[in-house]
Design goal:
Elements: H1 3-8, E1 25-31, H2 38-45, E2 51-56, H3 63-69, E3 73-76, H4 83-91, E4 98-101, E5 106-108, H5 116-126, E6 130-141, E7 148-160, E8 165-168, E9 174-177, E10 184-187, E11 193-195, H6 202-222, H7 228-239, H8 243-257, H9 266-283, H10 288-306, H11 313-326, H12 329-342, H13 347-356, H14 361-375, H15 379-391, H16 395-408, H17 413-425, H18 429-437, H19 447-459, H20 463-480
Parallel strand pairs: 1-2, 1-4, 2-3, 6-10, 6-11
Antiparallel strand pairs: 4-7, 5-11, 6-7, 8-9
Helix pairs in contact: 6-7, 7-8, 8-9, 9-10, 9-11, 10-11, 11-12, 11-13, 12-13, 13-14, 14-15, 15-16, 15-17, 16-17, 17-18, 17-19, 18-19, 19-20
Length: 485
């Protein structure tokens, strides 16, 4: 195909001729009535892909004209309440080697878009069927006033186009490969996709969510889909802050997936979320037997899933966390050590290992230093390290370290409290009061600040001020106590 030919064939971009075989990328979209946002989405990918395919599902506005004006190959699909059918129709029009999936209310982040080619190059080196999960940053309107926030999750968005690779799931669809073949999955740190669809009113979001839940429940009545629909219903319950309902859907998702010989990768997230909830529930139990049963359930869900995805770090983290919650610190330390042998800088594993090795201060200190080297100084780790130096007799080292950190990072509240406690214990109450004084102007002052102030002021002979501080501490503690009846 010549460059002139490419210029005349809708959908192909000039880069088609210069991109090596096996590396060509198609941006693939399904749309309906998206005239307000479609141009932004297509423009964000034009310089980084070789083909653009848009399938319309029944637009009544200028969507089709906009897609064609931007050089897209446009197909048509009669909407049947099945997102996978529509996406597979679009996939059928793709001729490139790789597919980037984008929705009309999304865009490829300009600062990271260039990394798309690197992701595809990694896929070419890997070979076979593979799907890359890209970071997706969702923008959310502030429900209580102006402004917005954002959240980031990973979503399977770039995959090799091969026979048998197709979308499954009527709603909240996912990419998979026909039975008997394996789809590899890998995380990519870039490029980032920016999703604008949630930066709308609560009413619009509620209508979208209600529609999707209805479609999911209808689809699940026909097909359990290996736990996929239960997993997506759990996500909706989480968004609605219905924790009990979310936990039950996750239980069903993991149970249904366990009946499938090769469950899709979503089960890693489902088992991770379920285990997190169960471990949190176990911490709240007064009866040890009730807590044990919850931890047992968490471990069973994790172990079942690890059998299919042994490389899934979040599952190993939950296994270690459950062991630590049982009080089996040896098992927790071994599991954290296994994680660190694979991912030496994993922050959660480093903190978990340090906690599990609490009886060996030298190991804890080395582990905290590894965390600092990999992730920089954090308030909690700084305070922990300073307290560890103090309790092992290195009081001057503890003071020097904490004083340096508090001066460098005035926002480190835990480190400041730890330093003030050290100063008070070592006979410098006035210095302790000085260190804590700046915290009294802020909101949500920790109770411990008033307790240390009470002790320090007492040593300084300021009994009235000390009584005021201790009274505030006692009142704060009383407020925090759960009510009975």
């Amino acid at each position: 195909m010549t460059a002139t030919r490419v210029g005349r064939v809708r959908g192909y971009l000039p880069s088609w001729e210069t991109t090596p075989d096996g590396h060509r990328i198609a941006a693939c979209m399904i749309v309906r009535d998206e005239e307000a946002v479609l141009a932004r989405a297509i423009s964000s990918v034009r310089d980084f892909v070789d083909e653009i395919v848009v399938v319309d599902t029944g637009s009544e506005d200028a969507t089709i004209a906009i897609a064609e004006a931007h050089g897209a190959r446009v197909g048509h699909f009669a909407w049947n309440d099945n997102f996978s059918d529509a996406r597979n129709a679009a996939l059928g029009l793709v001729t490139a080697d790789w597919v980037l999936v984008l929705d009309a209310d999304e865009e490829l982040e300009p600062a990271t878009a260039r990394y798309l080619r690197e992701v595809v190059s990694a896929g070419v080196r890997h070979g076979g069927a593979i799907c890359f999960a890209l970071p997706v940053r969702s923008r959310w309107a502030n429900p209580d006033g102006p402004g917005e926030s954002s959240t980031i999750h990973k979503g399977g968005r770039v995959f090799r186009r091969l026979p048998g690779v197709a979308w499954i799931g009527e709603v909240h669809e996912t990419i998979a490969i026909e039975d008997g073949k394996t789809m590899a999955y890998a995380d990519a740190d870039a490029p980032t996709i920016v999703h604008h669809g949630y930066a709308v009113s609560r009413e619009v979001l509620a209508r979208k969510a209600s529609r999707n839940v209805e479609l999911l429940e209808r689809a699940r009545q026909r097909d359990r889909a290996g736990g996929y629909y239960a997993y997506k219903l759990a996500q909706h319950a989480i968004s609605d802050r219905n924790r009990d309902e979310a936990r039950e859907w996750l239980r069903q998702s993991v149970a249904e997936a366990s009946t499938v010989s090769s469950p899709a990768r979503f089960i890693v997230t489902a088992a991770d979320l379920l285990a997190r909830m169960l471990i949190e529930d176990a911490r709240k139990q007064a009866a040890r037997e009730a807590a044990r049963l919850l931890l047992d359930e968490a471990e069973v869900a994790v172990v079942r899933t690890i059998a299919h995805y042994p490389e899934a770090t979040p599952l190993w983290l939950r296994l270690a966390e459950a062991a630590a919650e049982r009080g089996d610190l040896s098992a927790a330390a071994r599991t954290y050590s296994t994680i660190l042998s694979r991912t030496p800088d994993n922050p959660e594993a480093l903190i978990g290992y340090a906690s599990a090795m609490r009886d060996d201060p030298a190991v804890v200190l080395r582990t905290l230093d590894r965390h600092i080297a990999a992730h920089g100084q954090t308030d909690t780790v700084c305070a922990w390290r300073g307290e560890l130096l103090r309790t092992t007799g290195r009081v001057q080292d503890a003071y020097d370290y904490l004083d340096r950190m508090v001066n460098a990072r005035p926002d480190f509240r835990e480190a400041r409290i730890t330093l003030a406690n050290l100063l008070d214990d070592e006979g410098a109450p006035a210095e302790a009061v000085r260190i804590l004084s700046s915290m009294l102007d802020g909101d949500d002052v920790p109770v411990m600040v008033y307790e240390i102030l009470g002790r320090a002021l007492t040593r300084m002979g300021q009994s009235e001020a000390a009584m005021d501080a201790l009274t505030i501490a006692a009142a704060r503690k009383a407020e925090a106590m759960p009510t009975v009846g």
